[in-house]
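Here is one such protein, fold included:

. . .
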Amino acid sequence: MFLTEAEAEARLSDLYRERSRIERAIADLTLFLDIGRRISVPARGAVDGWRDPAPVAPSPDTASEEPAGESGGDRSQARREGRLLIEAASEILEEAGRPLHAAEILEGLTLRGLSVPGIDPVAALNTRLWKRSGPDGPFQRLGDAVYALASGPDDE
């Protein structure tokens, strides 16, 4: 039942090839998802008014008018979604009754059906929370990506 040296080397070689194949598949899928995420953002019109290529090129008049009108609506939609995320994060921190790491807050957001756009959603959420953790913000930053609700003047 023992392996000879040649058999062990052959199996090891097979495992290395299999690992290489799996790593290539992981890299391919990661690249596919990354490209898909990059393409899906502009497809919603969120980046510089980019649109899917049309079979017929638009005239110069309509090309300049169309994105400008839609980008204002996209910005207001993004602001609404951002406010919704911050409100939900506040509720999650209030329900927890303790400081939470951005990853824990993201789990709560996900359970509520919300998502944070970006390649690294925890980092993107951390940035959003950090920007709102100033003296007048709803959050207090306690450490690396750890937040609590800011205590207001009537809490003291």
Notes: Residues 5-43 form the longest helix (39 residues). Residues 41-70 have pLDDT under 50 and may be disordered. Residues 1-52 form one domain. Strands lie at 100-101, 139-143, 146-149.
